[in-house]
User: What shape does this take?
Amino acid sequence: MEHMSFLVAVVIITALAFDFTNGFHDTANAMATSIATGALKPKVAVAISGVLNLAGAFLSVAVAKTISGGLVDEKAGIQPAVVFAALIGAIIWNLVTWLRGIPSSSSHALYGGLIGATLVAVGMHGVHFDVVVTKILIPAAASPVVAGVAAWGATKIAYRMTAKGSESVNTKGFKAGQIASASLVSLAHGTNDAQKTMGVITLTLVTAGAIAPGSNPPTWVIVSSGLAIALGTYLGGWRIIRTLGRGIAEIEAPQGFAAQTASATVILTSSHMGFGLSTTQVCSGGIMGAGKGGRTGQVNWSTARRMAYAWCLTLPAAALLGGGGALLVDRGAVGEVALALVGVGASLWIYLLSRRQRVDAGNVVEASTVGEPTPLTPVPAATGPIAA
Amino acid sequence: MKIDWAALGNTFGVSLLITLGVVTAFCLGVSALSRREAAAVGGAASVARGTALAVAVVSFTACAAAVGYGLYLIAGA
Assistant: This one.
């Protein structure tokens, strides 16, 4: 560690910052439906999710050891500066989508940033495009559909089987089930996503020569990654929670239970099969399926469509941002400083924009009183320029 | 580029089956609890209540086992 250059330290801090945005971007995946149905109070939900994300981070380092998953060719000359550019790109895209309340994939943002930065820095041969297609694009297209179909079927079963039962017992039971399945999603999320940051930091340390190639992530890396994602989760991406919990469909306890159970199952099965997957997309698919299978069968397809657009955009947009960053850091120290300033400036600006119309624990379920599904964007016209 | 359709199909099928299985077991448990409540209110024989409780316990245990296997997969993956 004594060999750590200033740049490496900056990259590590940036990686933890990404981890933090990853946490609050994805709180919604596990907890949006539980908050929407009132199974958990908003603050309690994010606290549980935060703790479980932290716990999840300690469960395994298998993903961290194959961070890029063969995505980029680590031997092609990836420098810490390139990783830095990738991370800044991923962070900015995560913040933009959060501001718009869109549940997009944090993992895709990270992958996109890495791909773009690598393309610019070392060229086409640095990226394994076949791996990109088979391990990322195809699962990304398939997993929400699988989760949606499973959640739809599960919702039908849940309503049919409990139709004769007492309303109070049903509600109590399904709320408990929601909490259990949402907790499992949180845990799986911590294991998967915190490890991506661990992997990035480890990769950086290896490229900087601070630790030997093939090493396990050092303990301080595991602890700090776990803490960053847990903190982000606890602070809660309320905008996205509102979109997922209220914007797609009116969710009742049996639907929430069905959606989270389907999501947890799909996440665990596909990571077991070695598919990189987006927790966000799986959970969104599950919620759509549960909405379709519910009493009214109503799904707000315009919200769903905009979400799907954002999913398609995430990889290329983050790649563009990462690539732009790589162009900057190519200029040497001046470029690195400039990129750091851009990253901090953009984050600050987005944060200030978000303050214009706050969404927090207090008003996250407010839309329920209106009865109408909320339109997707909590912040209308104000954010026009950055969404372009 | 080789797309492993079999693995994709497997993932789809297994996910669907497990989800539906767990939800069915859970709903069996919940509706058993409903029956138990109804039996208690209606003053039915304690055998009916006992059976309902037993069904509920078995169902929820099955769900818990599925969750346990999930945890095992997370830690072991």
About this structure: Chain B touches chain A through 38 residues (CB under 8 Å). DSSP finds two helices and no strands in chain B. Chain B has a mean pLDDT of 86.
